[in-house]
Specification:
The protein is of the alpha+beta class. It has 2 domains: 4-94, Phosphorylase Kinase, domain 1; 103-325, Alpha-Beta Complex (Aminoglycoside 3'-phosphotransferase, Chain: A, domain 2), CATH 3.90.1200.10. It has helices at 7-18, 62-74, 103-118, 129-143, 148-162, 204-215, 219-229, 236-259, 266-270, 276-284, 293-311, 314-325, and strands spanning 25-28, 37-43, 46-52, 81-85, 90-94, 172-175, 184-186, 191-193, 200-203. The longest helix is centred in the C-terminal third of the chain and has 24 residues, at 236-259. The protein is globular, with a radius of gyration of 21 Å. The model has no long low-confidence stretch (mean pLDDT 93).
């Protein structure tokens, strides 16, 4: 399970950290789409998480990942870091025995935890999220993944958001940027965030919007979620900014999951698209995964449909106008 070219480095890491290189037990963890090798290991009778980064391209930045992870661990947002070597691309942390995380509990806990994360000293800047989204959209358009009569309207809506949405300012904070369910581990008492590969300085509303796909289903949910995060100070601007970021994410997921999934055929586009929150309940409960290209394509279409529906709401025009004014 440990890559052959990493075995010596792993054994050295264990010897340095625990005074032994003997692994009592080892099991590979397969959740998520990361290319990293993630293992539960038992050393001296205690479980730990061993994560080995296998990517060596320009996107991979272990030193940044480990710095963000360490800062979060010191704040008890991420599990304790026992060992992290950016050159060897190896990290050992506490293993969290995850329990079911009730959505009603998550609605209260997540905004409180994000408030603590975003209050940490700023993470290093890496990329501008909206710039990277623009590049991905251009790649999607060049690939001609879907008929223009479908995508032209989507990108017209996107341009309305892009033209008003801020790219800099006081809302750039320490962000995790990948808060999907498998990166949120609830031990029965507290929530821990794991997999800091995508962490960097980013828009706070991105971190708020990703888990909202699972947790924020009604106007009342949204109000409570934002009040918990902003200490009750939810302005029209903050609500509008949150709403528009959620729409940007719908388009981002649509583009990303089609680029890395299956190109839809005519028959795929005629099939009923599952309701958005029903589908996300399945992801939250572990009933739906993205191991195959077919499931990624379906997920892309779920986000496409939600994006189209939300763009028709009166709130969409209101949010564009409010954020365009730039009033907090």
């Amino acid at each position: 399970m440990i890559p052959e070219n990493k075995k010596e480095a792993v054994l050295n890491a264990l010897q340095t950290t625990f005074g032994t290189s003997k692994i009592d037990n080892m099991r590979q963890l397969t959740a998520g789409l990361s290319s990293a090798v993630v293992l539960k290991i038992v050393v001296r009778g205690k479980p730990y998480l061993l994560r080995i980064i296998t990517r060596t391209d320009a996107i991979s930045a272990p030193s940044l990942e480990y710095a963000c992870m360490q800062a979060a661990a010191e704040a008890r947002i991420a599990p304790k870091v026992w060992y992290a070597n950016a050159e060897e691309r190896i990290a050992v942390t506490d293993f969290i025995d995850a329990r079911p995380f009730p959505i009603d509990e998550a609605k209260k806990v997540m905004p409180e935890l994000l408030k603590r994360l975003h209050g940490l000293p700023p993470f290093p800047f890496r990329i501008n999220y909206l710039d990277s989204m623009e590049a991905l959209i251009q790649k999607f358009q060049a690939a001609k993944t879907m008929p223009l009569n479908i995508t032209d309207e989507l990108f017209r809506i996107y341009n309305r958001i892009k033209n008003v949405y801020p790219r800099h300012g006081n809302d750039m904070v320490a962000c995790h940027n990948d808060l999907k369910p498998e990166n949120m581990l609830f031990d029965g008492k507290r929530l821990w965030l794991v997999d800091w590969e995508a962490a960097f300085l980013n828009d706070r509303y991105l971190d708020l919007a990703v888990p909202a796909n699972f947790l924020v289903k009604t106007e009342q949910d949204e109000r409570q979620y934002l009040e918990n995060y902003f200490n009750g100070e939810v302005t029209d601007y903050r609500s509008a900014r949150f709403f528009l970021m959620r729409q940007l994410l719908h388009l981002f997921y649509f583009v990303t999951f089609l680029l890395f999934g299956k190109k839809p055929e005519e028959g795929d586009l005629k099939k009923p698209i599952p309701p958005f929150f029903e589908y996300h309940n399945g992801i939250w409960n572990g009933d739906i995964t993205f191991a195959g290209k077919e499931s990624r394509m379906r997920y892309a279409l779920v986000h496409m449909e939600q994006f189209k529906q939300n763009a028709k709401l009166p709130r969409f025009d209101e949010a564009v106008e409010i954020v365009g004014r730039g009033n907090y």
